[in-house]
What does this fold into?
Amino acid sequence: MEYIEGIESNTYFVDENVTTKKYSLAEYFEYEYVAEEKHEYLSGEIVAMGYASERHNIIVSNLMLLLGLCLRKGNCKVMTSSRMVYVEECNKVFYPDIVIVCESEKFTYSKNMDAETNPSVVIEVLSNSTENEDRGSKMTCYKKIKGLKQYILISQKQKYVEIHERMSEKSWLSTEYTESDTKLQIGDCEVVLEEIYEKIVFEEV
It folds into this structure.
C-alpha cells in the first residue's frame, strides 16, 4: 500500500486508530504541483484519486463530446477531471469528472496553480468506491457553491441519471432519468440519454 507521509493514498477510508497529519491548503497545492497523480484535499487530508473503469471513461468521453458541441459558442466552458474545484466553505478541493463553468471565478495559489470556485454544473460518474461519498459529504459540500445550478450523478451500472437542481438558495429538486426517458437537460444543453451510454453494453438481467 502506498502512503503519502502517513496518509493512505489509495482509499477514501481512514483508520480512526491512526493519527493522520493535517495539511494546510498551501501544503496541498505545493504537493499537488509536483505529484504524478491527482489528489483531492479534504479539510486537511490529502487523498489520491481512485481507479476509473472503462465504462467510466466512455461515459465521460461521450458527455464531453455532447456538451462540448453544445457549448462551443457562448460563455460557458466544459472541462474534465483535470480541473480542480475549490469549495472554500468546506475547505476542500475536488476533481469532478466534468464541470461546466459559465461565470468563472478562480482561487489562485500561484501563477502555476489555480482552481475553479464557481462552476454552474458538476457531474460525477458513480462507482462502488465513491458512490457513498458522491451522494453524501461531497454533495453537501458542492451545494454550498453559490453559483452551482446542477449537481448530476451518473450510473455506470445502468442507464440512470440523477439531477439535483437548485430551485432557491436552500431548495433543490431531484429528478431521476432512466432507460424509459429520452432526453434530459444539462445546463443549457438538451442531451439524449442514450447518447451518454453510447458504446456501452449492459449485461442482460
About this structure: The first strand starts at residue 3 and ends at 4. Residues 54-70 form the longest helix (17 residues).
